[in-house]
Design goal:
The complex is a heterodimer of chains A (148) and B (369). Chain A contains 3 helices and 7 strands, in the order E-E-E-E-H-E-H-E-E-H. With 148 residues, chain A is of the alpha+beta class. Chain A has one domain. A 5-stranded antiparallel β-sheet of chain A has the order 5-1-4-7-6. Chain A has a two-stranded antiparallel ribbon with strand order 2-3. Chain B has 369 residues and is an alpha+beta fold. Chain B folds into 3 domains: 166 residues, no CATH class; 74 residues, Beta Barrel (OB fold (Dihydrolipoamide Acetyltransferase, E2P)); 117 residues. Chain B is globular. Chain B starts with a strand and ends with a helix. Classes of the chains: A alpha+beta (148), B alpha+beta (369). At the A-B interface, helix 3 of A face strand 11, strand 14 and strand 15 of B.
């Protein structure tokens, strides 16, 4: 287990798969761990990277994303979801991701994780898309967080 | 009964998946029976050249009962009852059983012949009448297969074969058209004109109904379900029968269409869609989701539809102050859960066997105040 993230204002960045977006609205399932995620949602620390850089690294490592949303540590904490550091080393052709972190849904069963996914999604939508790649949208990076 | 005969048709096409028979194709079944009876009369007279007519009770001895619809698309089983035949025509039930087999084989031969250039078949007026009804509701990507009583040579009738078969004998054929067009004219003298992909169709309607239901609705979408007489060049000659014609809410119709298109997109997703994870979306889940959309069409405009990693479908929407999620699984079960948008209340996940009244009541209980 990595060191806990304690700065409630730090925005954690979440990549959204294009199939989990319809008419600009992401699915709640994109904001909760998948079966293979072992109850931990993968995010990147806005205090260490920008939404655009996180997107570039994510996609250059072979994953797919259409948008980056953000939820801060305090918002996760409001639902008793602790967040922790989880830097990823380079592996094979995949580049290292020192900003990687996890939001832990471990203490909740599958059913509760689903409604938490709905809550987290609403918080993310309220903040707005942080890095749109759709040319029709505003392409600026609006996290407001500077990489350290 | 062991000596009864089961004649099996198989309807192939998306709307028949899961043993579903839309009610507007059920009229095929009596038409099929009429076709069988017509061939049976020919067969009987062929066997009894000394006779000019079939015996009294012959047609009634060839009753078919729909006993079940098996899965794989929809496979209606039509059973010929030997006991009933024995009651109607005592003593010749063995021969009748042979005649049923021979007639079924003759129908198969007729359909098979329509696939090639076998020339015009010799079709009596009663056979043409039956064919005008049988398969009239088929869409271009659908077919009706005849499962052979013996052997494995499956033959089928589809839209093209049926058209070729009937028009090889006469200029027009009947086809059932359903869809949504635009109302371009309504006359107090008793007809409306609907603009459709097949051209403008004039439909006779009672003047009083026009006044009540169509007045003031020019340029509005009209849902229609009609039987038309069409020529070889796909021109509509005449409206034969009207099953349903109604002005519909344009926005609702568009929202439902958009939802169905989205489900169609999901159906083409391949396994591994989620960066190597995520199963291909299961047909059962898609069908359940479609049922739900259809049953709550009023909310189709606010539904977002997504694939689920476990081969399912996820529908999400906001209504009645709730953010609701409905998950349709590959085994047909449906899970529903939600959160209050401006409050802390939550609906814990509940699972239902299907898109039935219980699920809809649970859903409505949250979104309708």
């Amino acid at each position: 287990m990595g060191a806990p993230l304690t700065d409630g204002a730090e925005v954690l960045l979440r990549q959204i798969h294009p199939d989990l977006v319809q008419d600009g609205t992401p699915a709640s399932s994109a904001f909760r761990p998948k079966e293979s995620d072992k109850n931990k949602l993968s995010v990147d620390r806005g205090g260490m990277t920008t939404a655009a850089a996180a997107f570039d690294l994510f996609t250059s490592n072979g994953y797919t994303s259409i948008a980056v949303y953000g939820i801060n540590v305090a918002e996760f904490g409001a639902y008793d979801i602790p967040c922790e550091e989880d830097p990823l080393p380079a592996e094979g052709e995949k580049k290292a991701n020192p900003a990687h972190a996890l939001a832990s849904f471990e203490q909740f069963g599958g059913s509760k994780q689903k409604t938490l996914g709905q809550r987290i999604k609403r918080a993310a939508i309220a903040r707005g898309i942080l890095h749109p790649i759709d040319s029709r949208a505003d392409a600026s990076d609006v996290t407001g967080d500077k990489p350290s | 009964m062991a000596d009864d005969k089961t004649l099996k048709l198989r309807y192939v096409g998306t709307r028949f998946n899961g043993a579903r028979m839309p009610v507007n194709v059920l009229s095929d079944l009596p038409a099929f029976r009429d076709l069988l009876v017509s061939f049976a009369r020919d067969e009987y007279l062929e066997r009894h050249k000394d006779r000019k007519r079939v015996p009294k009770g012959f047609d009634a001895s060839l009753t078919l009962d729909l006993t079940q619809i098996e899965d794989g698309s929809a496979q209606p089983n039509l059973v010929w009852s030997r006991n009933l035949a024995q009651e109607m025509l005592p003593g010749i039930e063995d021969e009748l059983a042979e005649i049923v087999d021979a007639s079924y084989a003759n129908i198969a031969q007729l359909f098979e012949g329509a696939a090639g250039n076998d020339g015009s078949p010799d079709l009596s007026p009663d056979k043409l009448r039956a064919l005008d009804k049988f398969g009239a509701g088929l869409r271009p990507d659908e077919r009706i297969e005849l499962i052979p009583v013996t052997g494995d040579n499956v033959v089928y009738l589809d839209f093209e074969r049926r058209k070729r078969l009937i028009t090889s004998f006469r200029e027009t054929y009947n086809v059932r058209l359903t869809g949504v067009g635009t109302l371009v004219s309504n006359s107090v003298h008793g007809h409306i004109i609907i603009r459709t992909d097949n051209g403008d169709i004039s439909v006779e309607i009672d003047p009083e109904e026009i006044k009540q239901n169509f007045d003031g609705s020019l340029d509005q979408p009209v849902q229609y379900d009609i039987m038309v007489e069409m020529d070889r060049n796909e021109r509509i000659r005449n409206v034969v029968d009207v099953f349903d014609v109604a002005v519909v809410d344009a926005s609702l119709e568009a929202a439902v269409s958009r939802s169905y298109e989205r489900l169609n997109e999901l159906s083409s997703m391949k396994a591994g869609w989620l960066d190597g994870e995520g199963s291909a979306i299961d047909e059962t889940a898609l069908r359940s989701a479609q049922q739900f959309i259809s049953k709550r069409a009023i909310l189709a405009g606010v539904m977002c539809i997504y694939p689920n990693e476990g081969a399912g479908v996820l529908i999400e929407l906001e209504a009645g102050g709730w953010d609701m999620s409905i998950e349709f699984a590959s085994n047909g079960s449906v899970e529903i859960y939600g959160i209050e948008i401006d409050g802390a209340d939550e609906m814990e996940a509940q699972t239902f066997n299907d898109v039935g009244d219980e699920l809809l009541a649970a859903f409505d209980g949250k979104v309708r105040h």
